[in-house]
Amino acid sequence: MQRWLKRAGLILFFGLWAAAGLQIWAKKQESREMEAVAAFSNIGTDNRSGIVQYYGKLKKEKQVQMLERREEYLRQIAASLGISSQILVYRTYGEDSQSVVLQKEGANADTVLRLVTWREKGAITGQSLYANVTIPGGGFEEAQTLRTKMQNVLDETMESKRSSVAVQGFYLGNLSEEKKEAIAEQLLEDMHARTVIKNQDGNLYTVYAYSPCFSESVRQGTTRVNLALTMYYNSRTQQTEICAAVPAIGVSGESA
Prior knowledge:
By secondary structure, the chain is of the alpha+beta class. It folds into 2 domains: 51-164, TBP-like, CATH 3.30.2030.10; 173-256, Nuclear Transport Factor 2, Chain: A (Roll), CATH 3.10.450. Helices cover 32% and strands 42% of the residues. The strands form 2 sheets. It has a 10-stranded antiparallel sheet with strand order 2-3-4-5-1-6-12-11-8-7, covered by helices on one side. A hairpin with a 3-residue loop joins β2 and β3 (97-105). The longest helix is centred in the first third of the chain and has 38 residues, at 2-39. It is globular. The relative contact order is 0.16.
């Protein structure tokens, strides 16, 4: 009996020890995630904006067959996102596609919804929805809230869907390569991220990285990527544009 009680006591002790360890790890992980999100507020020094991008291919049974119904479809999506007035809608035509575009420039956000219908020999072969919402003065958390709302509205009707949250800012002038490197290194350190791919192509500087603080990622071979950081010098505005996006949906790969 005493031996059994001793064994039970040891099991209880190690169970409590493991639970305490998990609690400490969870708090540490939460702290790291908060630090990573806070780092987005250091993107650029001027005119910071939050950006949400969404892409999805409509399921076959959800495709909008009639041309006149496609504008109504986009207006319904806009209404679900809280957009109902001062909307501009227009159509464009390509050799094998038709697009209906809804635009709204507002005080709180600029929204573009684009429904592209692909055709072959007169028959619809697919429909894709592209959405881009820019929140002037917004940050990561505002954009993430909108992304979640957009996913709730659209995901059930889509396949091959992808979306991301980004924060864009600006620096005056054309930053040197050394300055870009220093900015990227500091941001990646603050986001607890490690570089996977880095490239300098003319005025465009790109870093793809992985941070354990963000759950979504894509696979690049045996490596995961979930953070894209770009810097680009715009000679017209004489500013260097910087943008950090999570997850990095511009990278080809399989979701993980």
